[in-house]
């Protein structure tokens, strides 16, 4: 298959859609199923070639937007333009939803689950085959370190397709009635922090459950979703089953939310926009899942293995520049070990390298946009004004691009805006505590409830904390571990509904 992809990519004509195929072609099934494990696929030689322009993917074809307009996508590490992407509008949404509806009512809706599964599996294999290309483009467009794109985003995206491929023909065993039904057309809206991974995380369960999809990636990071569209086209998924449209959130995204023929909205993004969407679809009978912001508490007890804990804290806040909804952005340290932990943290942040995201040695890449860098800077200034103590690394900084030093704040009040609000950058607040009850009270005292981490040698303490921390996920002696089998989602203003695992499938079914 690797060869076939490389060949097809060279000619624009061969990218033209084929007629809706009711079932996977025999010869390609053989190639797709040459191994059945999740190990890396043999990589193709596909290079990270970027075209001068990218169009919308509707009904199996790449098409110009109705307005004919394009927006620039830039590399946040250089501030230079990468390419142009089609600017969709409400008319494009309507065309995409019609294509999705037709596919759902037609070939896709009638296809046996076992056949659906083969397409999903094939997409997973093709992501593996194009892993290098996808990693490079993810890093160029979004600014995250290449090590992360290569070792986390892309393999995990493939795993979401693998995992959900396995579910497609087993739904009737797992859900209460014998024949759970898809919802129809799902509108999916993505944030910019894990562009390909979020696309996989949303598309794979929707396909496994038999729905058709219209997906909108974030404007600053549309490229890997469009590369996924190429893969979907190569995989011969029937036209219209997945449509990927690019454009502005407040206009085109809103048009998708409001489209009367969409049955479900799956949104990942900020709490503010989540609330706008919640209001917009009230009373429409559309199903909704919201994956929103967070303010994760990472808690170090005095019996923890401190070196391991410090590594976990560093990973918890600086992974992906802190652009992580479940980032461990608040650290709580038990008083007796506070001086030692603080010293270890200071020593560790001094070693972190901020710089070129394409360099394999880089720990912290570029902030995704100028706007996000300004937001982070605003919070750093608030912290200084509030009289908090700031500890910034003194690492060398690139001359160009959007970068931020790893930053720690101590001496903060629980009511501080830095403790209460999501910063979404490489900024960690540090507070102390004496008792379990005190830290539970403080950890739960924000509007969010997405993630938490507990560092302790005592199993009983882990179990006590997991029942009392109001967070969708509580990690013990680790942090930021993701797996397609686990449901993921929040309490309170972090949203509702779960994605991933069996619960994530239920969100796309009438059971
Ligand atoms: P955002 O500003 O809310 O944008 C998210 C997406 O919604 C983008 O595609 C955006 O389009 C679109 N959008 C904006 N306004 C809209 C509207 N009125 N109607 C429909 N769509 C609209 O969030 P972000 O800045 O991209 O992402 C960061 C946020 O996402 C953080 O708060 C983070 O915590 C959260 N997040 C949560 C999870 C989770 O699983 N809980 C995971 C990742 C991120 P544009 O392209 O025009 O911006
Ligand atoms: Mg970009």
Protein described:
- The structure is a single chain.
- With 511 residues, the protein is an alpha/beta fold.
- The chain has two domains: 40-292 and 494-510, Aldehyde Dehydrogenase, Chain A, domain 1; 297-484, 3-Layer(aba) Sandwich (Aldehyde Dehydrogenase, Chain A, domain 2), CATH 3.40.309.10.
- The protein contains 19 helices and 20 strands.
- The strands form five sheets. A seven-stranded mixed sheet has the order 14-15-16-13-12-17-18, with helices on both faces.
- A hairpin with a 2-residue loop joins strand 2 (56-58) and strand 3 (61-63).
- Helix 6 (131-142) packs across helix 7 (146-167).
- It starts with a helix and ends with a strand.
- Residues 73-74, 141, 220-221 line the site of magnesium ion.
Bound molecules: NADP nicotinamide-adenine-dinucleotide phosphate, magnesium ion
Number of helices: 19
The total domain count is 2
Secondary structure: number of strands: 20
Which helices and strands occur, and which strands form pairs?
Elements: H1 2-10, H2 26-32, E1 53-54, E2 56-58, E3 61-63, E4 70-75, E5 80-86, H3 90-105, H4 107-110, H5 113-129, H6 131-142, H7 146-167, H8 171-174, E6 181-182, E7 185-189, H9 195-208, E8 212-216, H10 223-234, E9 242-244, H11 249-258, E10 264-268, H12 271-281, E11 287-291, E12 297-300, H13 306-318, E13 330-334, H14 338-349, H15 370-385, E14 389-392, E15 407-410, H16 417-420, E16 427-433, H17 436-444, E17 451-455, H18 459-468, E18 473-476, E19 495-496, H19 501-506, E20 509-510
Parallel strand pairs: 1-5, 7-8, 7-10, 8-9, 10-11, 12-13, 12-17, 13-16, 15-16, 17-18
Antiparallel strand pairs: 2-3, 4-5, 6-20, 11-19, 14-15
Helix pairs in contact: 3-11, 5-7, 6-7, 7-9, 13-14
């Amino acid at each position: 298959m690797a060869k076939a992809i490389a060949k097809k990519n060279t000619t624009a004509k061969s990218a033209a859609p084929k007629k809706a195929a009711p079932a996977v072609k025999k010869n390609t099934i053989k190639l797709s199923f040459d191994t059945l494990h999740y190990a890396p696929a043999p990589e193709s030689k596909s290079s990270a070639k970027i075209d001068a322009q990218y169009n919308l993917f509707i009904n199996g074809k790449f098409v110009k937007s109705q307005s004919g307009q394009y927006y620039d996508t830039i590399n946040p590490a250089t501030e230079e333009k990468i390419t142009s992407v089609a600017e969709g509008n409400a008319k494009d949404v309507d065309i995409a939803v019609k294509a999705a509806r037709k596919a759902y009512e037609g070939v896709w809706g009638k296809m046996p689950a076992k056949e659906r599964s083969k397409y999903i599996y094939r997409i997973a294999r093709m992501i593996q085959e194009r892993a290098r290309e996808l990693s490079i483009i993810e890093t160029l467009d979004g600014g995250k370190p290449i090590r992360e794109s290569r070792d986390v985003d892309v393999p995990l995206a493939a795993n979401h397709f693998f995992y959900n491929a396995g579910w497609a023909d087993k739904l009737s065993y797992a859900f209460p009635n014998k024949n759970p039904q898809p919802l129809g057309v799902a509108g999916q809206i993505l944030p910019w922090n894990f562009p390909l991974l979020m696309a996989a995380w949303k598309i794979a369960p929707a396909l496994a459950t038999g729905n058709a999809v219209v997906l909108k990636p974030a404007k600053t990071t549309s490229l890997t979703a469009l590369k996924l569209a190429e893969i979907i086209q190569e995989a011969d998924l029937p036209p219209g089953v997945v449509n990927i449209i690019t454009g502005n959130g407040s206009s085109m995204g809103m048009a998708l939310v409001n489209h009367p023929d969409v049955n479900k909205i799956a949104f990942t993004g900020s709490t503010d926009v989540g609330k706008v969407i919640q209001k917009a679809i009230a009373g429409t009978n559309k199903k909704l899942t919201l994956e929103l912001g967070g303010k994760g508490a990472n808690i170090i007890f005095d019996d923890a293995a401190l070196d391991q804990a410090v590594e976990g804290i560093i990973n918890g806040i600086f992974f992906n520049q802190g652009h992580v909804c479940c980032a461990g952005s608040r650290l709580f340290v038990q008083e007796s070990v506070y001086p030692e932990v603080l010293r270890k943290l200071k020593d560790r942040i001094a070693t972190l390298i901020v710089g070129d995201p394409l360099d394999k040695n880089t720990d912290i890449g570029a902030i995704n946009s100028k706007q996000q860098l300004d937001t982070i800077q605003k919070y750093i200034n608030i912290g200084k004004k509030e009289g908090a103590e700031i500890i910034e690394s003194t690492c060398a900084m690139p001359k160009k691009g959007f970068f931020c030093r790893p930053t720690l704040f101590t001496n903060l009040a629980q009511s501080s805006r830095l403790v209460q609000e999501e910063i979404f950058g490489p900024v960690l607040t540090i507070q102390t505590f004496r008792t379990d009850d005190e830290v539970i009270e403080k950890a739960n005292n924000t509007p969010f409830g997405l993630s938490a981490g507990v560092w302790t040698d005592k199993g009983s303490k882990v179990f006590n904390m997991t029942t009392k921390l109001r967070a969708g996920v509580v990690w013990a002696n680790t942090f930021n571990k993701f797996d397609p089998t686990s449901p993921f989602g929040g309490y309170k203003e972090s949203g509702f509904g779960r994605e991933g695992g069996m619960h994530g499938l239920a969100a796309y079914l009438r059971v």
